[in-house]
């Protein structure tokens, strides 16, 4: 991290010694200059432009990338932002269960998620969509309302179903990505390399849960609202033109903490834990409650379960 | 050696032919350049502010750009429509116009790639998709397949067109052993580009509107209507404006073939609509949104019915021999079928596929000014490519302009013996 070279605009400096290989070298300054023009700004560094897919980086390259990002964030937000690279914990596959009989639709999870995960505030991106359902219709998205806004929840005749990334075992989104910018990690979390995504939005078309969100404009995140504890594959501030999604708060859960939405939920509707640990709360739910998977007919095999606890 | 020198002569002569023309030619090229400039201006704005300047949002994450892309893949594939009868049945009158079909395919592909390029959020990361240099997720991603087949098809058509013209330029007969296999190869390639593009949507279980087994056949059927429709009009224009002789017979034969594909296209569309509407499952909502509107949102309804009506009328005009061989009704039919497929394979495919979204939300999408301006610019690029190619190709095809003819003797490069 210490031998990081200072930032320089494309075309005006030596190629970086740290990030670069034979395959990348061929992309000359001309291409880089064109790329700068294509981003519509002059701030794209050569290192950033030539950075390879996260899964192909060496340990040292990862450290260099992280150092560069931390420096960028420091300059942009005027405070120290840590970018972690915590790997999956061996023997852990995360599972999530949501109690539909307890959820009152207060949307505290939605906003806690935005705060924790450094989503753009303007235009506002939310990773959790809470659907207000008709009790008489059951779980039916054609009778769902995501824009309910009464003075008080829950409303008569309705129940609430929060939907976020279901962390599928067979994710359709990773399958379709043309450049392998998104994948399912060993602990079952589906992640995105924001520095590799080309923004084609094929994954958004493929996801049956509306879990993927695009940075249509430049994401605006006020400096005082930045959560400085971030993860490369999770809540670090995102650039314009890439897709992002829920990562079960990878920056927290890989360090033994609960996701922000679990912690904030006032009704205890949200359960989270290690599916491989027999004594975990998630295993208790699976054993003692009757669960269902959302859109199970699509065979996406979510590690996110819904249940009726009461 | 001679070939190389001849090729550089061919190249510079091609450029010279492209840059010299009459007043009408300059006006047309100027008009296209103006449109390109407008499109470029709009695109620069999009690069600066992001895709937020479009009306696409998370619910409807693909729109006008990808709709046009899909339609144009069909146009590119339709070159095959002329190649099949020409080479399989050895039917001479069409053979001469195959090269025009191939040039149309090249122009359409240029537009296709343009529409993909303006749709992606990070065009600066374009290199990520280049095999070996980047990381192409092949064979898993259908988009990776599409990148490969579209570029191969572009390369193939470009090579055949260049080779045929180069032969004409050097006053040699083309080597049939080389051209025939390539032209025959272009038939399955044309089918494959449109099939892969259909699979791109088809493979998404999350989108029931696209997740239908007859989507690829429907794509092919409609492409074989719209592609030749453009070509038929072009052929008539060329007959009038150049010395190119295109027999009536050829045009009417293509029109007859179009009548069959149109009938098939209508049949497939009806089969799809029947299955959805009669079984009446929850998957019907997308068809409902397209044909009748949903929860008061009826944006697509007039377009959908206009498309169906245009398709039906065009089918009748092409089916009846008397209207098929009448220039007025034939051209009306061409315009109608073009309009019908443009709606059906463009917005009529993309938007109801995404509306309502996977969680039942209805976001009403209409393209923004930026999207329309950028699209106009890309169409202008395609037309410009086609115009420039034609400008150079026609005199060469006619034998008016070769290595020895068509200029003052001083200018003529040394002749190969």
Write up this protein.
The complex is a heterodimer of chains A (310) and B (417). By secondary structure, chain A is of the alpha+beta class. Chain A has two domains: 22-80, no CATH class; 89-310, Alpha-Beta Plaits. In chain A, 24% of the residues lie in helices and 15% in strands. Chain B has 417 residues and is an all-alpha fold. Chain B has a single domain (8-404), classed as Formate dehydrogenase/DMSO reductase fold (Up-down Bundle). Chain B is 71% helix and 0% strand. Chain B is globular. Chains A and B meet through helix 2, helix 6, helix 7 and strand 7 of A and helix 2 and helix 6 of B.
Compile the SSE list and pairings.
The complex is a heterodimer of chains A (310) and B (417).
Chain A: H1 22-25, H2 29-39, H3 46-50, H4 59-77, E1 82-84, E2 94-99, H5 108-116, E3 129-134, E4 158-163, H6 172-176, E5 182-184, E6 190-192, H7 202-206, E7 213-214, E8 229-231, E9 243-244, H8 250-253, H9 260-264, E10 270-274, H10 281-288, E11 291-292, E12 304-307
Parallel strand pairs in A: 1-8, 2-12
Antiparallel strand pairs in A: 2-10, 3-4, 5-6, 7-9, 11-12
Chain B: H1 2-19, H2 23-49, H3 64-77, H4 79-88, H5 92-119, H6 142-169, H7 176-202, H8 215-241, H9 248-279, H10 284-291, H11 301-319, H12 321-324, H13 327-345, H14 347-354, H15 369-397
Derived structural class of chain A: alpha+beta
Mean pLDDT reading of chain A:
90
Mean pLDDT of chain B: 91
CATH topology of the largest domain in chain A: Alpha-Beta Plaits
Strand order of the largest sheet of chain A: 10-2-12-11
Name the biggest interface: A-B, 61 and 56 residues
Supply the CATH class of chain B: Mainly Alpha
